Amino acid sequence: METEKKLIGRGELEKLFSHWRSKGKRILAPKKIGAKIDFAAVTTLEEVCLDQVQTVQSAKTAVFPRVEELFSFKNKDGRVEIRERDQGALPETVIFGLRPCDDAAFAVLKAIFNWDSQDPLFSARMEKVAVIGVSCPRADEYCFCTSAGGGPGGTTGSDILLTEIAPGEYLAEIISEKGRVLAGEAAGLKPCPASVSKEAHLAKVEPVFALERVAPALARLFDDNAFWVEQSLRCLGCGACAYVCPACACFDIQDEGGGSGQRLRCWDSCGFGLFTLHTSGHNPRPVQSQRWRQRLMHKFSYMPERQQVLGCVGCGRCSRACPVDMNILEHLRSVAEAKP
Amino acid sequence: METLRNKARELLASKTVQMVIGYGRGSGEAAPARAVFIRAAAEAESLIFDASCQQNLAVYLMKPEVRQLGKAALVATPSALRTILQLAAENQVKDHDLLALAVDAQGEVTPLATLQTIEAHVAALDCNLSAGEKTELQKYVALDPEQRRQFWQEEFARCLKCYACRGACPLCYCSRCTVECNQPQWIPVPAHDLGNLEWNVMRAMHLAGRCVNCGDCSRACPVGIPLYLLNQRLLSEVLANFNFRSGMAAKADNAMSTFKPDDPEDFIR
Amino acid sequence: MSDFEPKIVAFVCNWCTYAGADLTGTNRMKYSPRVTIIRFPCTGRIDFMLLLKAFANGADGIIVSGCHPNDYHYSSGNFHARRRWIVFRGLLDFLGIDVRRVQFSWVSAAEGAKWAQLVDATAEQIRQLGPFSGYHKLRGAGVE
């Protein structure tokens, strides 16, 4: 559908929040939790925090939770009964206040989960999620969306994208059918004069590396062990980068409960040694440098090749969350600039 | 700072060490200093030392790919010095494996070439919890148990099981952690409430009598769980009951793998 | 909850407490049937993780018992265990977990009567504390 433009004030947004709540929808939005700001269930616009450049974690939990039950099972007289998830019981969710990079990350997740076969639970969750993004008035030194194919006002993945054009006054771009339904629930949408443009209200994010040079450089550098050791000496081998990433989708599957229990899907990370450990004891990626290489290769080489999407949206979360300042932007720049 | 750089240049030029592990400028405006691995005298100018140099660099002594680069000089905060002694007590580093460069707030550099000199240096430091740490810890101890339970349940509920706390900890060096023991699966893999509690209990217990209170676990935690409180509580427990302080001596029985016949047992029926 | 009958798991060593519990039986002394005994080679083997597993699997209370100090089959395992219990109790308490739910004891092979008293007293204590539902509810929580 063609993007529609409207104006909406904070007052109307507040009414929308109570409307969604009255319909039993879950609203996830950035919220202050201790010293950090993260996506959490909110009930009012008042609770929502939009001053930050980014939240610590992404909103991927709405469609790819940290831990989810795939199905439960019961062992009864030697016969196993399986109970599938009731997809109807999954929560209708509005995610509010994501940045455009996060909105775009849903496309990456879809490309992975629905690559060769459709992941039913992921798709069912996705179906029930509506995304209302808020474009970025500010960026920081970790942001690189414009080098990863996005931008501070990018509309990919959003159902509605809001841009604050005056205090408490938003330009609403209604992008999808879901967005139109959501907008239809708002009483006070005003027509948007043609003169209103979001561009002046967006952060300036200068491109910092040439994306088209990254994949060929990675292919060239694959066997250059010294390069990867140098890149990753500081890396502690934790999973912070993967877990805060809006586009990382690797998971583990665990059965819990013995004879009767649940099959669970939970996050996993290529940064862990256990990630690739074979039953035989052999580990094809025995050292951290190879795991770090995998992280970059997967996002910037394998995914573009196989799923035709980049596995990174340039949100910079991994760099901010890294305990030892592994700044992915620097690493990509040095990849792009590595001499052939 | 220049003293430190000159020392690094001298050590590298004379091939006394193959590498200086120190601090360099972090990448973000507010980012703390980051670890750098200097292998040529000419690179020594990137070394810094200021209040943002917080990471316990001794963590890298246990990383195989760093170890492969040869003998290191380590820019060491008091916590890092204690870590080195604790690692020595656990037979993880030997005398002359490394050279510690103790740096004080004025930028004065004291090279400590042997474990004995590190011990002497550490002996002169105040290794008690600071007044602020004690006050904060006491605040939680004074809560009623139900409030404490709720506090930790909320904190652990945010745990992602990313194991940044483990990665950042210089004393979490096991090549195979208990969380990776899966026959049977000791600690549940998923980051659900039970898995998070068991993981955090296990982490704290396995560091009891070993942790030197560097605080890197908490600094590493992306969701800001105050893990240092657990460590400080247990090191207070170990000090009070066994009169033992970790990281003070290169040869010491680990508090948790030794005993005294008269250890307290008023809680045993 | 007056009709609450606690589930108690007892981790005991093979050489003293298990034999002591046997003696209780051969002496035909009655004690609370709410206890499930798990025999270990030594108290030194009773890892704190086992205690947590018992709680996660529905125990309301735990008994850990072994040889008296200085009267011990392997000379020092119980001393090591005692240290770990001290620290573990400190941690449980700090986490807001009621330490009265874990009862530590020394019961020798000759103390059949002490074993019976220990189990009865622990069962009564746990009955008063009620079911450990706060811990049991952790199972399954945090799964979407």
Describe this structure in words.
The model of chain A has no long low-confidence stretch (mean pLDDT 95). In chain A, 29% of the residues lie in helices and 23% in strands. The longest helix of chain A is centred in the last third of the chain and has 19 residues, at 288-306. Chain A has helices at residues 10-22, 100-113, 120-127, 177-184, 211-221, 225-232, 240-244, 288-306, 317-321, 328-336, and strands spanning 4-9, 26-33, 36-42, 67-76, 79-84, 93-98, 129-134, 160-166, 169-174, 190-191, 251-256, 260-267. Chain A is an alpha+beta fold and 340 residues long. The N and C termini of chain A lie far apart (44 Å). In chain A, strand 11 (251-256) and strand 12 form a beta hairpin. In chain A, helix 5 (211-221) packs across helix 8 (288-306) and helix 5 crosses helix 10. Helices cover 38% and strands 10% of the residues of chain B. Chain B has helices spanning 2-13, 64-67, 78-89, 115-123, 131-141, 145-157, 164-168, 193-207, 216-220, 227-242; strands spanning 19-24, 34-38, 72-76, 98-103, 109-112. Chain B has a 5-stranded mixed β-sheet with strand order 2-1-3-4-5. In chain B, helix 3 (78-89) crosses helix 4 and helix 8 crosses helix 10. The termini of chain B are far apart. With 144 residues, chain C is an alpha/beta fold. Chain C has a single domain (8-136), classed as Rossmann fold. Chain C has 5 helices and 4 strands. In chain C, strand 3 (61-66), helix 3 (77-94) and strand 4 form a beta-alpha-beta unit. The longest helix of chain C has 18 residues, at 77-94. The model of chain C has no long low-confidence stretch (mean pLDDT 94). Classes of the chains: A alpha+beta (340), B alpha/beta (269), C alpha/beta (144). The B-C interface holds B 140-141, 143, 145-152, 157, 178, 186-187, 190-198, 201-202, 204-205, 208-209, 229-230, 233-234, 237-238, 241-242, 255-261, 263-265, 267-269 and C 48-49, 52, 56, 69-70, 76, 79-80, 82-91, 93-99, 103-106, 118, 121, 134, 138-143.
